[in-house]
Write a structure and sequence with these properties.
The protein is of the alpha+beta class. The protein has 13 helices and 19 strands. Helix 2 packs across helix 3, helix 3 crosses helix 7 and helix 9 packs across helix 13.
Length: 360
């Protein structure tokens, strides 16, 4: 009897020990939940610098230009050429880009486009899309590249009341920007009429005049004007002190107030013979007083401003009713009027005036 009781106790003990073992191991071998590294399929992932947006799991890629939406707004930002094509007052620019084959250049990132309106194209000699399509491709390429600056410039980044020169996509050609205020910005002889239009990677400003790049420098421009033949003779007579300046190419360029033939005659230089008989130093002093060491288009002059000349002294600029007059220190109350403004040269801008400016 004792033996059987002992055997029963031993067998029960073994069953108890081995029966508990699975419970022991199951409590200590649980694997932690995995951390997910897969983006939600409803979200989007942007690759910095790639310019593309990929939807994970979709297998599709959206290329810039097909339309992206600015966060926090309902505005769809498209590539520059696409924007120009859909803008009602840029139809001639769109036609010009197509004709010139410059869509890729206009769709670049980190550029600024000064976009001439349809009215600007018409005033510049292109009456309609047919006229644009008939224009020589090389001419359109030169003109259009002159409207591109190879950096992005928003209106707020343009310096106030400073003539600022920017290199364009046309080699060795600059344009001048002058900002009076955010609503009054000049680009050469043009004005921004609608600015800070965002396109993919670029800034676009619509302007009211077609910018035409110059093909000759200031001396050649003066010589080509028959109403400036006496000034041409005076430049030659004055010698290197003047001609070296006017032939020089600098980023800031020059502004020349060019006295007409009648203006020089009224100042005592009746003809070319009289100029050739004049003292070169006197002529040099007079002509340098008509030169500024930077580009200044007529609409950028400020009323009552005293501007420094290449001669070393200043002259007074007055603006009233859109009319610009100049007053030399030696002219008393007799002002010079700008009678032909904004003649663009490769190294500056020429304004024809009706009176010789006197420094003393």
């Amino acid at each position: 009897m004792k033996k059987s009781i002992y055997a029963y106790i031993k067998r029960s003990t073994l069953l108890l020990l081995f029966g508990a073992t699975p419970l022991f191991f199951s409590c200590t071998s649980t694997t932690p939940d995995p951390i997910s590294t897969t983006p939600p399929t409803s979200g989007t992932v942007t690759t910095p610098g790639s310019g593309t947006t990929t939807t994970p799991g979709s297998g599709t890629t959206t290329t810039p230009g097909s339309g992206t939406t600015t966060p926090g707004s309902n505005v769809t930002v498209v590539a520059s050429v696409a924007y120009i094509a859909q803008k009602d007052n840029l139809k001639l620019l769109s036609a010009a880009i197509a004709r010139a084959g410059l869509a890729t250049e206009f769709n670049q990132s980190l550029i600024t486009i000064f976009a001439p309106s349809d009215d600007a194209f018409r005033a510049g000699g292109y009456a309609n899309e047919a006229a644009v399509s008939a224009a020589p491709v090389a001419d359109l390429q030169r003109i259009l590249r002159y409207h591109i600056v190879k950096s992005r410039i928003d209106q707020s980044a343009m310096p106030t009341r400073v003539n600022t020169v920017y290199e364009t996509a046309l080699a060795d050609n600059q344009l001048s920007v002058y900002k009076n205020s955010m609503t009054d910005i000049s680009v050469n002889q043009a004005k921004i009429i609608e600015g800070d239009i965002p396109t993919v990677g670029a800034a676009l400003h619509i302007i009211n005049a077609l910018l035409k790049p110059a093909t000759v420098n200031t001396v050649a421009l003066v010589k080509a004007n028959t109403n400036l033949s006496l000034l041409t003779a005076a430049i030659d007579r004055a010698g290197p002190a003047v001609s070296d300046v006017l032939n020089k190419s600098t980023q800031n360029g020059y502004t020349i107030f060019a006295p007409s033939n009648d203006a020089l005659k009224a100042a005592g230089y009746a003809d070319e013979a009289a100029i050739k008989a004049a003292d070169p130093k006197v002529l040099s002093d007079i002509l340098l007083y008509h030169i500024l060491n930077y580009r200044a288009y007529a609409q950028t002059f400020q009323n009552g401003a005293d501007v420094a000349t290449a001669q070393g002294t200043t002259l007074r600029v007055n603006v009233a009713g859109g009319k610009v007059t100049l007053l030399g220190k030696g002219n008393g109350a007799n002002v010079a009027n700008i009678i032909q403004a904004d003649q663009a040269a490769s190294n500056g801008v020429v304004h024809v005036i009706d009176r010789v400016l006197l420094s003393k």
